Amino acid sequence: VRILGIEGTAWAASAAVFDAETDDVFIESDPYQPESGGIHPREAAEHMHDAIPRVVERALEHARETHSGPATVPPVDAIAFSRGPGLGPCLRIVGTAARALSQALEVPLIGVNHMVAHLEIGRHSSGFDSPVCLNASGANAHLLAYRNGRYRVLGETMDTGVGNAIDKFTRHVGWSHPGGPKVEEAARDGEYIDLPYVVKGMDFSFSGIMSAAKQAADAGTPVEDICYSLQENVFGMLTEVSERALSLTGSDELVLGGGVGQNARLREMLEEMCAQRGAEFHAPEPRFLRDNAGMIAVLGAKMYAAGDTIALEDSRVDPDFRPDQVAVTWRSGEPE
Ligand code: ATP
After folding, report:
1. What is the DSSP letter of 175?
2. Under a CB-based contact definition with an 8 Å cutoff, are residues 177 and 39 in contact?
3. For residue 135, what are the CA distances in angstroms to 162, 180, 219?
4. Which of 8, 20, 171, 315, by CA, is between 20 and 30 Å from 40?
């Protein structure tokens, strides 16, 4: 089975081909880089409009080159696309492209939840059975675990996503988007200053710490110290709630997903916490952490095998698509 995946929820115009027999994932991505400020929805959609046909064509070329069947057989078995969550104008372009391809190639269409894809790629590459998943991405931050046919949201941010929170601070100090890697770099030379730390049960909040970080920058506190302390507190919060989720679910497996998962300090904290309680920790390779169509194609293949395809008329996109809205069809028969 070979699946063409298409991703374009925010900044990454991406297409991929996943071959379930060889486990090979070919990914072609074209990132949107704002000239100034953060992600502008209209500009991001214009980028998708230009870049999606290009990346899809490249992925299809790869599929044709590696296709061994007769020319009359389509080079892929289905088209999987991110239906949401994400920016509406971007999602609509991806949805239109996916529908057109499904019709042109006469193959089924699969509507994938982008957040569930962020966590399923970690389950796929780790081989873990029933992990707790920490999604630390730009627009989101969730703790999820599978129970009774759905990924349940055990905890989440009460305001902004973790990457967006960091990016807001870096915009304030005049750094270009994306800010996360720049904070990671600057934090190496920093010392700890006191910043807010807000965890409530398994939920958490970033707005207080971000306002305090901006105020500290305005007051002349060295930016390295703010970056270091931001990382310690924000990642400390994510580590604390992950530990609580492991403890309450009784799971001894944690997987990380999302673009902020590329941060070495976050991975180190989670790894240490897991080691201390005898749990296993897995972070997928960076190309699968940031937004990418590989994760859409991999989950698309699991959904395809479960017969979880959608009719064109039911395939509209959903900018607020929550992970717990997804009926998990591909795990039936697996342990709860
Ligand atoms: P979502 O998946 O929730 O829709 P998204 O589309 O914004 O979010 P991702 O690719 O998952 O995207 O994550 C992008 C975010 O990751 C950006 O906010 C960026 O600053 C952050 N990021 C990237 N590298 C690092 C790093 N090394 N440290 C911290 N944050 C990082």
Report:
1. P
2. yes
3. 9, 15, 33
4. 315
Q: Indicate whether 336 pLDDT > 80.
A: no
Residues having CB within 6 Å of any atom of ligand 1: 9-11, 86, 114, 137-140, 161, 163-164, 166-167, 178-181, 184, 258-260, 262-263, 290-291
What mean pLDDT, rounded, does the chain reach? 95
96/105 Cα distance (integer angstroms)? 14
Spell out the domains of the chain, with CATH numbers in brackets: 2-117+289-325 (3.30.420.40), 129-287 (3.30.420.40)
Would you place residue 333 in the very low, low, confident or very high pLDDT band (cuts 50, 70, 90)? low
Q: Provide the whole-model pTM.
A: 0.94
66: left (phi over 0), alpha (psi -120 to 50) or beta: alpha
Spatial CB neighbours of 289, under 8 Å, sequence gap ≥ 6: 256, 257, 258, 259, 261, 262, 283
Tens digits of per-residue pLDDT, 122-174? 999 999 988 999 999 999 999 999 999 999 999 999 999 999 999 999 999 99
In this structure, the chain runs to a length of 336
**Residue 167 alpha carbon to ligand 1 centre in Å:** 9
Contact (CB, 8 A) for 157 and 141: yes
